[in-house]
Amino acid sequence: MLFSTTFAKRTPSPLGGRPGRGFLLFIMTAIILVHCPDQPGIVARVTEFIHSNRGNIISLEQHVDRSVNRFFMRLKWDLDNFMIPRDRISDYFRTLIAAPYRMTFDLYFPETRPRMAIFVSKMSHCLYDMLSRWESGDWQVDIPLIISNHPDMQPIAGRFGIPFHCLPVTRENKAEQEARQVELLQEAGTDFIVLARYMQVLSTGFLLQYPNRVINIHHSFLPAFAGAKPYHAAYERGVKIIGATSHYVTGELDAGPIIEQDVIRVSHRDSLDTFIRKGKDLEKIVLSRGVFLHIQRKLLAYGNRTVVFG
Amino acid sequence: MLFSTTFAKRTPSPLGGRPGRGFLLFIMTAIILVHCPDQPGIVARVTEFIHSNRGNIISLEQHVDRSVNRFFMRLKWDLDNFMIPRDRISDYFRTLIAAPYRMTFDLYFPETRPRMAIFVSKMSHCLYDMLSRWESGDWQVDIPLIISNHPDMQPIAGRFGIPFHCLPVTRENKAEQEARQVELLQEAGTDFIVLARYMQVLSTGFLLQYPNRVINIHHSFLPAFAGAKPYHAAYERGVKIIGATSHYVTGELDAGPIIEQDVIRVSHRDSLDTFIRKGKDLEKIVLSRGVFLHIQRKLLAYGNRTVVFG
Amino acid sequence: MLFSTTFAKRTPSPLGGRPGRGFLLFIMTAIILVHCPDQPGIVARVTEFIHSNRGNIISLEQHVDRSVNRFFMRLKWDLDNFMIPRDRISDYFRTLIAAPYRMTFDLYFPETRPRMAIFVSKMSHCLYDMLSRWESGDWQVDIPLIISNHPDMQPIAGRFGIPFHCLPVTRENKAEQEARQVELLQEAGTDFIVLARYMQVLSTGFLLQYPNRVINIHHSFLPAFAGAKPYHAAYERGVKIIGATSHYVTGELDAGPIIEQDVIRVSHRDSLDTFIRKGKDLEKIVLSRGVFLHIQRKLLAYGNRTVVFG
Amino acid sequence: MLFSTTFAKRTPSPLGGRPGRGFLLFIMTAIILVHCPDQPGIVARVTEFIHSNRGNIISLEQHVDRSVNRFFMRLKWDLDNFMIPRDRISDYFRTLIAAPYRMTFDLYFPETRPRMAIFVSKMSHCLYDMLSRWESGDWQVDIPLIISNHPDMQPIAGRFGIPFHCLPVTRENKAEQEARQVELLQEAGTDFIVLARYMQVLSTGFLLQYPNRVINIHHSFLPAFAGAKPYHAAYERGVKIIGATSHYVTGELDAGPIIEQDVIRVSHRDSLDTFIRKGKDLEKIVLSRGVFLHIQRKLLAYGNRTVVFG
């Protein structure tokens, strides 16, 4: 069973985080994310399905994108008295609801902690920001491994007891190293990947294995200053505000669905150095917000946009 | 019928706003705002009611406040093929849904423009901000009258063709002037009142006639600096950010349900004068955002809080 | 003499603004904005010049841009006991300070109200925002004329008693109409021009006559979404924040020195319509902030950047 | 000599931070922060003092608070060719400038790293935020000790190689434990103290030894929600924005000079739990910004306000 397996594999939380919280309260819930062509009656049909099977809806959020006439919904319900067994819910939902409405859906059990891999290069600010959230128990996630193209972050990984793999990437060995990365990710049962200022571009082949499951932080307010050295470009342009953007990674550089953005004021008194310093604060917060939304299963990417449920 | 009456009374929009837009497109819709004790099945029951009567849900947003175990919902649907006549919807809904669920509800037809009175004293910034939105057609609202305790704003009202009533208020004549205000408001068919930096406190007796229908702008980040001279107090305290708050007015000064807040940075370089100047920009934007939410029927006040639907 | 002429021509402020304030208090001050190659001793030399001539410094702000090794300063001082007559200050400063330090400078007497022309097309939000600030006396500026390529805003200009010139621009008559615009601007003694959502591109020839004296509002967070239809582009890209930018206009479209920017959050719940509506609030505030900085002589453009004094 | 002593005591930076940077570049500079009654000629006199002794001014920022008629200045200059020896600058400045102008001043040599103690209780988010900045070399500061009333953070201190002292505080032993704290702080040569969510109130006696040298983070937008449980109070009040405030600690609870504030939006969808979670991000960023300003000697507290130099 997926649930117990995942719990069994759980990375120990070194500082007394609260990984076992789910066990203690043991309120079992399910979350479903759906999208389909809009048509009358979807909400009524889905809520009736939950209700008539004795599920109690905890939260429901729906959205219709009129520009493409598409319906989106996130629904969370209590499984306590739900008549359909956990491992059959997906089948029943597919047959009874998804098929007739031509619906795409993902079903999650939030008590099951997702498994997140971190890719990092030489900078520690995003890494520490995520590890400290995890360690304190604020993030219900497992972190089975950290991969880097440089050895610099190894001591930090070590302190948190997380396996660290240094795989230096050159033009020549890139394909080979990516194959090794995929192998490590699969062995670790990785659900999604966070690029915490990882300074290598992943190949399209790699990305196709993790669609909408690789989250990157770009250090600009996209689409402004895509590509390399965005702070330099922003400084040259004389902007009065700089930003950061977390997004799902696609084959097109810095062009994937945007998850979260934020900005901070700069002025003529700022130098390139202070752009970079102020930007680092943005980067870590904007990345962590994006990752936390993903962990909570509040993100739904469609086309090049995201629906961010509240 | 309320609907045709309101259209007939519509204040002419002097600069080619779009008051008649509703007639042209003539998509008739209904909005219902409800709240009740939370219990299983509410969403399923309400959506089934709409759907089975051939209404098409345009948007649905629900919220449960776990701290008081209360359910809130805003639902908008298309009346095009709806089988229940407009003027019977309220009755049917009350009988079939609201009664069994002990639900409080308000039903609106958004093509009916609400009628808004403005109270103002000597400052024009909030007044202009609202009148220019109305004139351009951005706000689907009628403004049948402006009331002031000073004559200063009369020329502005005149330019926009809106009746202006100057009712100076003293300690002695306050009850009498409020009675005159209520008379004028009732004659004009006023739905709600906006205090656009109106420098008089309304009596509890007055406010009871317009529960959650009087919107004020307070020039501080409430609950900081409630009462008189908030910019002076903020300057004295040496804050680094100042704010403004739009809220429904209750009998307790500056303590009603908050609708919207926003802030702006200040520094040691700011004087009291620049606090006031920067604050005026906040005031007008925060008030207009709050009023626009009310016009769109996106606000639901419960206890001392508001649910602000998206 | 420029000073008395400008006062004589002053546009009357229809609602009791405070145009005569300078006369009443009659604290005469001067502001000088300078920039030059950085070198030791500039501040000491300039402040000694003011002090030894019995000027009292009210504020001094200096900045060195290390990336180009250039010194910038804004200095305001009291002329009360200043030994050099007003109309000789420029000469003396040039000879004694500016020449030896290879300094570029502008000298202003802030009691002299600058004369601002507004260019507008069909939208009123920026126009009202500026006119209401002017009318209330918050802006110490004269507005001798409004120019438009459409007649729509004429009634608003009329209400504020400001001459309105409708000069429709086509590809064929553009040069001719620009010549007429320049003629009107010169007759009115225009110091600077504000493009309040004016939907025509001004020619380089026109702009050369008003270097760093034409302020535009662009409805995006530049350099993202330069050019036409930025809200459409932002909506398509799925951004989570939209912005507006006020900047000096140069021959290169949307690429001039940025004065001020601000942003507001959007979400998947926003449509193109609500992008536009939220954006209008940004546009008017960001434009007015930029214009006010210019009126206060707090802006110094150098290369493609601005120094914004506090 | 203070300079070499401090360098000798420097805490080693475990992950390759850049503590020795000053030695490598060896650009020796001085910073002076001054305030005095405003009067003509101060800037001219001070800049002439620096210039005539062959100091090159790197940056100068002055401010006059008109409400109390007081002059403030921060001046940084290059000591390379400065004719007055480092250890005599203070004497000369006092005699020649400070005395005649009744000036209060502080002289710093920024290549000397200040020594910062951290007080913490059970939460790690602010602690990690500061330690990661220090470790990466972004903060030029030494951290000789961490003091806590609980043992929970000891492992984190250990990983960063920083001495950790657990001094549980009860009503009975408070005076005794504070005496022990002061002893430890003095032994460590502590320049200033950061309360990183330290949940004990320091006595006035303690604070008098560190005037404007104890920085606290309060988890509200002061002066709103001073005292205990600010998130609970904010949630009860139904605010739409929450904040955090870093400030110097004085004998009056949460009433000391404010250094920095920031805010984040909340909505009816937020619970008390999400207020706390969102607030933690604010707390760590607002505290770290305040501490960094202090480390850079950019803060000057006067009365109950701070001047924050740019």
Reading the helices and strands of chain A in chain order gives HHEHEEHEEHEHEHEHEHEEHEE
C-alpha end-to-end distance of chain A: 30 Å
Count of alpha and pi helical runs of chain A = 10
At CATH level 2, the architecture of the largest domain in chain A is: 3-Layer(aba) Sandwich
> Tell me, what's the shape of chain A?
globular
Number of domains of chain A: 2
**pLDDT < 50 stretches of chain A:** 1-24
Assess the beta-strand content of chain A as a share of residues: 25-35%
Number of strands of chain A: 13
> Could you name the CATH class of the largest domain in chain A?
Alpha Beta
Major β-sheet strand ordering of chain A: 7-6-5-8-9-10-11
Q: For this structure, what is the CATH homologous superfamily of the largest domain in chain A?
A: Formyl transferase, N-terminal domain
CATH topology of the largest domain in chain A: Rossmann fold
Helix content of chain A: 25-40%
**Gyration radius over CA of chain A:** 21 Å
Chain pair forming the biggest interface: B-D, 36 and 36 residues
Main pleated sheet of chain A: 7 strands, mixed
Mean pLDDT of chain A: 92
Structural class of chain A: alpha/beta
